[in-house]
Specification:
mainly alpha
């Protein structure tokens, strides 16, 4: 159904019928419930802490012995936050936190090459996101610290991290 047809259909409904449909959607689909729960009671700080906890658990697990270190967990939360309409500042915080925790993880471990490639992608996305949303000034020290660490630890794809910073004006 196109958006135009949906608008026409909704405009023809009486208020009670429309309310009933929305309540039905709310009951049937957890995504709709989560959306309305967020709209009326955002609790963005709580969502951020939950996401940070899950990401941290990927690298430093509490219940299992071996870390999974999957970038996809952080990406899932970032995508979810974008869908909900969370403040850009909080999304940028999560992006940068993911990189910081991954660097702490990498310090004492021998990680596969794919890990570095994945972190390069995350770095590029976080720098671009902060730049587009006018938050580069707020996150500049942390982004530069992440970059510095990649250079000091001689990370693979180090030139890629440099190119990411060359594409934005951090000064």
């Amino acid at each position: 159904m196109s958006k135009r047809k949906l608008k026409k259909y909704l405009s023809e409904l009486k208020k009670d019928a429309l309310e009933d449909q929305l309540l039905d959607l709310y009951d049937r689909f957890p995504v709709v419930k989560e959306y309305y729960d967020f709209i009326f009671n955002p609790r963005e700080d709580k969502l951020l802490q939950e996401a940070k906890s899950k990401i941290s658990n990927e690298y430093f697990p509490v219940k299992r012995k071996k870390p999974k270190a999957r970038r996809s967990v952080a990406q899932k939360y970032i995508k979810h936050f974008l869908k909900l309409g969370v403040e850009p500042q909080i999304i940028a915080e999560l992006m940068v936190y993911n990189l910081e925790i991954a660097q702490v993880f990498e310090r004492d471990r021998n990680v596969p090459d794919a890990f570095y490639k994945s972190m390069l992608n995350s770095f590029g996305q976080s720098v671009q996101y902060t730049s587009v949303n006018g938050l580069l000034g707020d996150f500049k020290p942390r982004i530069l610290q992440i970059y510095q660490e990649t250079q000091e630890q001689n990370w693979l794809f180090g030139e890629g991290f440099s190119r990411v910073l060359d594409n934005v004006d951090l000064m």
